[in-house]
Amino acid sequence: VWGVIAQFFYMGAQIATWSFVIRYAMHALHFDRIVASLGDGATTAQITDALRHVEPVAGGFYSLAESVGLDALLPRTAEQAGATYYILSLILFVCARFVCTFLMKYIRPRNLLAGVGVIAIACCLGAVYGTGAWGVYALMGISGCMSLMFPTIYGIGIRGLGEDTKLGGSGMVMAIAGAAVLTQIQGIVSDQAGSIALAYWVPAVAFSVVVFYALVICRKYDPEKN
After folding, report:
1. Are 196 and 20 spatial neighbours (Cβ–Cβ below 8 Å)?
2. What is the pLDDT of residue 173?
């Protein structure tokens, strides 16, 4: 049961985090203001040139994309500039998955899950209270932490279920409903608070449930408590 609950909150945190990346980046880095300052007669080339030099990480990504002929990834609108950070978040998500798989050779899964959960909470708080590029970096960092969570919660949650493994696995899959619930809550918080940044308290709370699961529940039922 606790595995399903942890998975529910993780899935909610994941989709809630990713759903607001574009708007968060646009607001934090003032992409709309930059485009507006160019005037109505600005050409696509002028807009692209202005947006690609706002922040160095994305700037390097644009240069790399341009060097390999992927000009379609260059920002032509404020929304496209914001979407770049969603792309970078997904790249970090994939890379961190391989890193975490390697670390599992040396660190117990529940301990690694707790560790990345704590870092994810810290990144959420960085997104809430950080400003400018630092807030965006913290937001992207959440994706690196999330890469481990789904398969680890799933594996730990169905361990030792015996004949009930299929039922437990079904519950884990159904836990993706958390994505619909927590994303809606985050949207409400954002609207009521008038701040996209403050809405990242929602995934912070969700990651707290994951950390509780890893530190308390998994340890309680783990025969090797070390």
Report:
1. yes
2. 78
Q: Using CB atoms within 10 Å of the CB of residue 226, give its burial: 0 to 12 exposed, 13 to 18 middle, 19+ buried.
A: exposed
137 within a domain of the structure (yes/no): yes
CB atoms within 10 A of CB 87: 14
- Name every residue whose Cβ is closer than 8 Å to that of residue 71 and which is 6 or more positions away in sequence: 65
pLDDT score of 144: 93
Q: How many CB atoms are located within 10 Å of the residue 76 CB?
A: 15
Output the domain CATH number for residue 117: 1.20.1250.20
Domain that includes residue 175, residue range: 2-27+82-220
Nearest CA to 157 out of 174, 176, 171 is that of 171
pLDDT of residue 172: 74
- Domains in the chain: how many in total? 1
pLDDT value of residue 117: 94
pLDDT value of residue 221 = 65
52 in a structural domain: no
Backbone angles phi, psi at 20, to 5 degrees: -110, 5
In angstroms, rounded to a whole number, what is the distance separating the alpha carbons of residues 44 and 210? 45
In the prediction, which pLDDT does 134 show? 94
d(CA 84, CA 90): 10
Residue 36 lies in a domain: no
Instruction: Confirm whether 154 is domain-assigned.
Output: yes
Query: Which residue carries 């117990």 as its tokens?
Result: 108
With beta carbons less than 8 A apart as the criterion, state whether 109 and 155 touch.
yes
Ranges of the chain with pLDDT below 50: 226
